[in-house]
Specification:
Helix 1 packs antiparallel against helix 2. The chain has a domain at 1-47. The protein has three helices and no strands. With 88 residues, it is mainly α.
Length: 88
Amino acid sequence: MTRAELERVKEWAVDRLTTGNEPPWSWYQLMKLREASEALLAGMATQPTADLPEPAERLGAGLRLVGGADLQDNAQPHQETQPVQLPT
């Protein structure tokens, strides 16, 4: 997303907030959108993009799996002589 597009999104959110015609539930979402776009724009201003390496270089040639939890490891074993009760 370019800086101009992000600024346009922020302006749209601010316009929607200032009109006051939005439903009450959307006010919080619009505030989050405005704050997030401001934070991204501020981050764009502090980092020169020409010095950043390409995404593949930053990741070191590819994606890697980082620790996960196997939920089946936590399952309690059941005795084969007892029938398994399934929900109805």
